[in-house]
């Protein structure tokens, strides 16, 4: 895969998440289908159907004009209402849960397809309406094309019914959390599969040559195949410095090379780094932890005050942490023989601290949520891990949580619950 094809792939991933992606494709298909039907009408498809299936053809020009005009008006009304519902959905999700959830909701292909059906039907009916031309005191009616316009309107009505059903489910926080969890789980499982054949040796990189990026953005992804080919062609090894998902400023070193590289080689290598202004769970599983964590924090805020949502979110967070504990704190890109590229990733200690720190700040006064988090630590403590010291990290973060919770509570029953949790976790507070 060349750098050009890699950029095309990144561009496709970017526009596919736009709310106008599928509607644009459907709109073009509606226009093309209208011209196709005009061509078929010119070669006599309606005349053939009048002889063999007259019920499928609209013969009256006035009736055809009235039907198509009503279809266009109704479809535009449904489309406006549907777009309004999408905006309400996005506004509610941003205010009640987290603004980070918006890219995932906007990229929901079902909403885009339904809007695309509306637009393609409207454009089809408009072009067919224009094709009805007066000939003397009569109209030249594309009868079969008008019938298809009616059928497309019926399809749009059923799509509208499905849209109402789907959007009522999409706004539910459990469905939002499940979608985030499934995308992150799929990404982590891909990484775990790559680690099965991974080598675990790499030379020290402190004295290697550092090279910087010429633009800013979120470091989302890179082309593994291209980087591997680059290392072999230039007889060098690389270390990628930023962690996926972090914001990289222009001029900040982004990789180290064992061998000195020419300016052309550096530019060629940098073209395989994908820097973006937005974040997607499908390319960076760490974003899922951030999103779920923010949902918990927002739910525990005084303005929302929804501990039930926080408890549900902790369940999804627990499962993602269990999967992350199966992954090592190092990652490499290699062929069947050796490692050529070392990737810097967020270690389990860094990740758990970033998750637990805001939870300690916003949830330590609620004994129910603290108890749920304590159960999460208890469950993770007995799980299989890639490195034994993960258990020590869990114990340390659990201790910090219980200490902050004890400082925030004064009720004796709550303090007894904390003592019981500390005893089960083998922690002194």
UniProtKB/TrEMBL annotation:
<feature type="transmembrane region" description="Helical">
    <location>
        <begin position="20"/>
        <end position="40"/>
    </location>
</feature>
<keyword id="KW-0812">Transmembrane</keyword>
<feature type="transmembrane region" description="Helical">
    <location>
        <begin position="111"/>
        <end position="132"/>
    </location>
</feature>
<keyword id="KW-0472">Membrane</keyword>
<dbReference type="InterPro" id="IPR018723">
    <property type="entry name" value="DUF2254_membrane"/>
</dbReference>
<keyword id="KW-1133">Transmembrane helix</keyword>
<feature type="transmembrane region" description="Helical">
    <location>
        <begin position="144"/>
        <end position="164"/>
    </location>
</feature>
<feature type="transmembrane region" description="Helical">
    <location>
        <begin position="64"/>
        <end position="90"/>
    </location>
</feature>
<protein>
    <submittedName>
        <fullName>DUF2254 domain-containing protein</fullName>
    </submittedName>
</protein>
<dbReference type="Pfam" id="PF10011">
    <property type="entry name" value="DUF2254"/>
</dbReference>
